[in-house]
Design brief:
Ribosomal Protein S5, domain 2, Pdz3 Domain, six-stranded mixed β-sheet, six-stranded antiparallel β-sheet
């Protein structure tokens, strides 16, 4: 009590105490902002890779067994970085900071890390999507060049806790679904939903040149019947084509990979020496599909110095109001349209190309 009375009687000492308390509150606030968990993640523009060039001294794309031609300019692969982890999300300090970062977007953690799936499952899915995207881009480019491409339906991911966990394996070739020839993910989903969990779905698969038949009863997950697998239509590639972009995952590089392969395998300069960015998944038939992270990729392309941006037509609604003035966005729905767009860019007359207005 005597000490407290002395502080109250001495304004200078009281001021010091208040200042120390203020510093303590500030330190505590900073610690909270830095360490407290949040339900959010932050999407940011990620690294940009010219797939006509090299990364760490090695070509991004190598085509063997056939003649290849010189290339110039750039076909930029765009990426999105995620700040935050599956357990704690992004720090509150990072969330506040993101309001001042161009292209940053706060998203719900569950949209990247759904409940019931651990980070290992998510990483496996993303890596598998990238491999599937690479295979589809090779198939689409070769098909456009006149090669005959055949495809098979393969199991790409098996969730450990799913109905098929411990039964199917990634890499299994799916031959039939309930007695019908396998055609892809839509067929699997239809048959699984039709079972309503009251009967098993019968799958015939090929594994290491041996056929196996499994009866798997779906599980109810978030109101939907699921086997806990992802399947992809994978083309059989007749050439040795290697794509190296370590640390990049997901399906959105398909369009750019296909254009780069086409450029390497045809005479002349596909880009006309220009710097062109693009995004979008691709199917073997050349169809270009929507992807996520459009606003971040637009900013990434602008910051990398690209003049043109090839965007899936189905993503136009995501781009409206977010297109930097430095970029001309060209909407495409298939590989043929992308090639026509590049022809227009080479000619210097792009006014007739479809945008996202």
């Amino acid at each position: 009590m005597d000490s407290l009375r002395k502080i109250k009687e001495n304004p200078k000492r009281l001021g010091i105490v208040k200042k120390v308390a203020g510093y303590g509150a500030l330190v505590g606030g900073v610690a909270f902002l830095s360490l407290a968990p949040s339900p959010s993640l932050i999407e940011l523009p990620g690294p940009v890779y010219n797939v006509l060039s090299t990364v760490n001294g090695e070509p991004v794309i190598t085509v063997k067994d056939v003649e290849v031609y010189p290339v110039e300019g750039a076909l930029d692969l765009l990426t999105v970085s995620i700040k935050g982890d599956p357990d704690r999300g992004a720090s509150w300090f990072s969330i506040i900071e993101s309001f001042f970062v161009e292209g940053a977007q706060i998203i719900d953690k569950a949209s990247v890390y759904p409940p019931g799936q651990d980070s290992e499952d998510i990483d496996q899915q993303a890596d598998t999507m990238m491999l599937d995207s690479q295979a589809s881009s090779k198939g689409a480019a070769l098909r456009e060049l006149g090669y005959e491409i055949t495809s098979s339906v393969k199991v790409s991911v098996v969730l450990k806790d799913g109905a098929a966990g411990g039964i199917l394996k990634a890499g299994d070739t799916l031959l039939t679904v309930d007695g019908e020839t396998a055609t892809g993910i839509d067929q699997v989903r239809t048959q699984v939903a039709a079972s309503e969990g009251k009967r098993p779905v019968v799958l015939e698969i090929l594994r290491e040149a041996k056929k196996f038949t499994y009866e798997i009863t779906p599980k109810l997950v978030d109101g939907n019947w699921r086997l806990g697998i992802f399947v992809a239509t994978v083309p059989e590639i007749p050439l040795d084509i290697e794509i190296k972009v370590d640390g990049v995952s997901g399906p959105s590089g398909g369009q750019i990979f296909a254009l780069a392969i086409y450029d390497l395998m045809t005479p002349g300069l596909l880009t006309g020496g220009k710097q062109i960015a693009g995004t979008g998944s691709i199917d073997v038939d050349g169809s270009i599909g929507p992807i996520g992270g459009v606003s971040q990729k637009l900013i990434g392309a602008k910051n990398a110095g690209a003049e043109y941006f090839l965007l899936p037509k189905s993503n136009c609604s995501d781009a409206k109001g977010k297109i930097p003035v430095e970029l001309q966005v060209i909407a495409v729905s298939n590989l043929k349209e992308s090639l026509k767009a590049l022809e227009a860019i080479r000619s210097g007359n792009t006014t007739s190309l479809a945008g996202c207005n």
